[in-house]
Every structure is written in structure tokens, then in C-alpha cells.
Amino acid sequence: NRLYGRRGVYQFQCVIPFEEARKGICRVLEEAARSRGASFLAVIKTMGRGGLGPLSFAMPGCTLALDFPRCKETHALVLRLQNIALDHGGRVYLAKDACLPADRLPSMYPRLNEFLEVLRAIDPEARMQSDMSRRLKLNLR
Question: At 101, is the secondary structure helix, strand, or coil?
């Protein structure tokens, strides 16, 4: 908390397919620099094969993670960075995300309907909910 302050941090982490990774990551970094978003952490890694789960983050490509102090300006920045990732065929890491709007989820996670079918089968009355499931409207689809 001393590094980021009492409000905490927004972590933006995306994966972009190899074919688009260089362009997409450069655009993300340019947007972060242009907006003067001070990230105290930047990690770029390559990722191999995709995961088996319908909401798996993994896909062949490059990941980029950036941490920003949590404030109104960085929330808007993270939304712009998400758009850039999406423009390049990427997706954000849901486990670390606090900003993704519900309307962007199907484009980033094409197997979303498989997850929703399982969710409806095990929880037809939508009793199991979290802040994230409500933000992404997972129980309303």
C-alpha cells in the first residue's frame, strides 16, 4: 500500500496473439505513456498454448501486465488499453481485472456461452454471485 497509496492498484494484463503482439503491445505502451499513466510494474512474457477452460486467459501470444495507482484517470486509461487489446485480437485477464464492461466480454472470450451453460446448470437461480459476475452480467445472460 505504500507504493500505490490507500486506494490500491488497477492491474491491466492482456494477451495478444503473436501475429498482432508487437503492434498491439506498442500501442498499449504508447497510450499509457501519452496519458502519463505511471506504471510501477511492467512485465512482458510469451505464452504458449491456450487453456482448456471456456474462460481461460491463455492463448498463444504475448502478455503485458501494467500496474497503475487506482484513480478515476487510470480507470479511464485501463478501459482504453482494453480496447487496444481487443482491436488486436487480445483479451484481458479476468482474475486481475476490475474494469472490463460486460459488453466487451463475448468478443474477448468466444467460448463464453459454454461457461454460461455450465453456470445455468449448476446454479439455475443465480444464487452464486460476486462483484465481478454482477459487473460482467454473467447471471443475466
Answer: coil
Question: Measured in Å, how far apart are the chain's first and last C-alpha atoms?
Answer: 36
Cα separation, 96 vs 92, in Å, equals: 8
Calpha distance 106→2 (Å, rounded): 36
CATH class of the structural domain 9-99: alpha beta
For the chain, the domains span 9-99
Instruction: Look at residue 17 in the predicted model and tell me its pLDDT.
Output: 98
77, 18, 43, 135 alpha-carbon torsion, rounded to 10°:
40
What pLDDT was estimated at residue 112? 97
pLDDT at 8: 84
